[in-house]
Amino acid sequence: MSTQPDQTDDETESTPEPDAEPEPESPGERRRAEKAARAEAAEEEAADAEPDLGDDAITLKVFRYDPEVEGKTEPRFDTFRIPFTKGMTVLDALIEARDTYDSSLTFRHSCRQAVCGSDALFINGRQRLGCQTQIADLDGDVVRVEPLPHQDVVKDLVVDMEHFYDQMEAVEPYFQTDETPDGELEEQFQTPENREEIKMSTRCIWCGACMSSCNIAADENEYLGPAAINKAYRFAMDEREGENMKEHRMELIEQENGVWRCQTQFSCTNVCPKDIPLTEHIQELKREAVKSNLKFW
Amino acid sequence: MREYDVIVVGAGGAGLRAAIAAQEAGADVAMVTKLHPVRSHTGAAEGGINAALREGDDWHDHAYDTMKGSDYLGDAPAVEALTRESPKETIQLENWGMAFSRDEDGQVSQRPFGGLSFPRTTYAGAETGHHMLHTMYEQVVKRGIEVYDEWYVTRLAVSDEDEPEERDCHGVVAYDIKRGEIEGFRARDGVILATGGLGQVYDHTTNAIANTGDGVAMAYRAGVPIEDMEMIQFHPTTLPSTGVLISEGVRGEGGILYNSEGERFMFEHGYANNDGELASRDVVSRAELNEVNNGRGIEDEYVHLDMRHLGEDRILDRLENILHLAEDFEGVDGLEEPMPVKPGQHYAMGGIETDEWGATCVGGLYAVGECACASVHGANRLGGNALPELAVFGARAGRHAAGDVDEEAKITTGWDEDSEEGENVSPVALGEAGLPSAEKGALADGGATAESAGDAGVVEEAVQAERTRVHYLLEKEEGVNHAEVREDVQRTMTENVNVFREESALKDALGDIREARKEYQHVTVEDPSRTYNTDLIHTIETRNLLDVAEAITVGALARDEFRGAHWRKEHQERKDDEWLKHTMLSWNDGSPGLWYKPAVLEGEDKTYEPKERSY
């Protein structure tokens, strides 16, 4: 099963639209999912009627699914009321919900500081890192958290990352050079300018937000996607690799599922939590590809 | 059962480097990690890698700085291995393409760091660990080394001889988080633990939520002594609301600490008249808390770290990541205002006792990186010494496990003729909480339970024991949630076993930990699912936190002196006559016992004589 992107950012909690829910596999499942959504909406209203947890409580709506646990095999949303504290992030709220109300609530998280890339989520209709998203910065009273769209859901907010990892590995994501230094203590030189040129591309934390936001990657499963192409850019533009290796890299990213699939929609750039100019990097590789092709005319 | 020559547990910097080295030495290697490698907490390291690379610098000076920084509790053969081999490993990283910051002439850049006599901290912006982790993982991908990601190693398969020194490790038991299956991994030549930190025993820590001391706890219960556990580093500059780290690089580049009176207290109140903000971390952390305790803190909680005077260009060039962290996690613009900072748990100097090759006293079992204690850091780690430790000892252990080393270690492991028995200091019982016998087998979780049925038999028995435990945890109907137990441990450790330590508080902590252990006997996993059951994972981790928290506190109570990061209210001096020795704790099948071993101050061609440590 998979989720599809949500078109409506301003949806309120009491009226979940069917197309905001994960896409079920059959019409029967779709009906059941809709039913679950309706039941969920009713449950939320009931939850809203409960005594307040203070003026600052927030409502957290979380996608739930477990392939084997009764009552969770059909996707649904659960609602939690969480006391708001200053500086609270979406990840903090999820942890609070799990540790206080439901220890089976499942999501990946580790570093809490936007470097491990574990908690890319679909928050109020946009790919973001849970730990990097201040609740105070979100619009509306309800925080809705879903797994990353376009990826198979393993359970609750956990998606299967294997396809993402496969695409990353498809671009030979490791340094290769025409000439390795001879001595054990011999470093390769790199100008500060060249280091600056690749700097942003080296910031990628493999969170998968970009791939999830990309319509092309959603439709064409084999498209390398922005993260993998950015990884290729990181090496292709590194002057330490040398000209021969650069040609090899251009061949890799020029293949059928490479840079030319990109339609320059900038969705990846917009959601990247590390502000990597992904679309620009893809465009620059397209220009490099044209240049290197001209050489052989 | 799966079989490999070498199994590496954990895939942060130390694990990745170990796997690469073992494979280069011809071993068939697998890595087993509860995260995906790039999620490991090495990625959060900011400052840099100390390496004597440049003219005018010398690895002997680096060794001297490190011994002094350790307050003479480091073991010289390990310290010298670190400092001698760090340049080679650092350049190796550069040759693997790591994106180091560069000087105008194209060389890798270095900057000053606390406690160093030369600006030898090699860095990549303020995100050195991120670049190091990814560069190493790239090499693992390149080499096709098998990685079991999101497989949680929960038990070591160690044979059951009476003395730990006679035992052998034959593999590990791992739980496939995605599928909920338990499987045995047999290691023909060696198991290398590289499981990282244990910061989750505290509630204000720079460590990740996954840093639960798993390797330390597993090795400890399998009989391996754990060393100097009381030596916990509190980093002086963490953000007050989250514990997120603000790199020492800020002070290295010239950042200044101010109290609420606007005084540059490191100098004005005489904490470090020479080095000021760049004194060793333990010194700066105590100074900050002292300011707060004397009413000169801001909001009674923190001090200010100001870097505005460095100018936007320099900040963007060398510390850009710090701007993002301060903005995202504290709502402060470091270009416009000073950043609030306070000490937070950061690093465990102690850990699994190893020699300078990463080998423990149990045959075939190694430990490297933060979970290990060689000891490189002694009573206080210098900033910039953790990342080279990962590379140097990862590589050494990988080669050793693969059978590529026949040099004898100078540091001994396990009990030897220089060891001395310790007295019990705890007011309460330690170790395994009393249990009804039927449940004991399920929750006891000792390591050495196997009967001699051949190497594979040891692994098979460990698998069975683990299946019993997981089944028990999943089937138990009612009880307490692990989160409550974890919170109890974190609360008492933060309150009682922090920067400033006193006897009564340490004893209180041991009492609280005992209570938490009893609570844990009633722990239950509510989530019945076999699919990605994090409830179960966190429940198992919490058991590890209990063992580790207790060990830290016992060591802190036993060591009645002030050395490095370990400050004792009643004992305000370093006692070299009595305490130039490591605290050792052995599990003894559930009844922990303290003992001691002398620190090794004899280096290759000189002895590091303890001197007064001033900055």
Automatic annotation (TrEMBL), chain A:
Residues 194-223 form the 4Fe-4S ferredoxin-type domain. Pathway: Carbohydrate metabolism; tricarboxylic acid cycle. GO terms for molecular function: 2 iron, 2 sulfur cluster binding; 4 iron, 4 sulfur cluster binding; electron transfer activity; metal ion binding; oxidoreductase activity. Residues 67-149 form the 2Fe-2S ferredoxin-type domain. Its cofactor is [2Fe-2S] cluster; [4Fe-4S] cluster; [3Fe-4S] cluster. PROSITE patterns: 2FE2S_FER_2, 4FE4S_FER_2. The keyword Nucleus does not apply. This is Succinate dehydrogenase / fumarate reductase iron-sulfur subunit. The lineage of its organism: Archaea, Methanobacteriati, Methanobacteriota, Stenosarchaea group, Halobacteria.
From TrEMBL, chain B:
PROSITE patterns: FRD_SDH_FAD_BINDING. Its EC number is 1.3.5.1. It is a peripheral membrane protein. One of its GO terms (molecular function) is succinate dehydrogenase (quinone) activity. Its cofactor is FAD. Residues 486-615 form the Fumarate reductase/succinate dehydrogenase flavoprotein-like C-terminal domain. It is found in: Membrane. Pfam families: FAD_binding_2, Succ_DH_flav_C. Belongs to the FAD-dependent oxidoreductase 2 family. FRD/SDH subfamily. This is succinate dehydrogenase. It comes from Halolamina pelagica. The lineage of its organism: Archaea, Methanobacteriati, Methanobacteriota, Stenosarchaea group, Halobacteria.
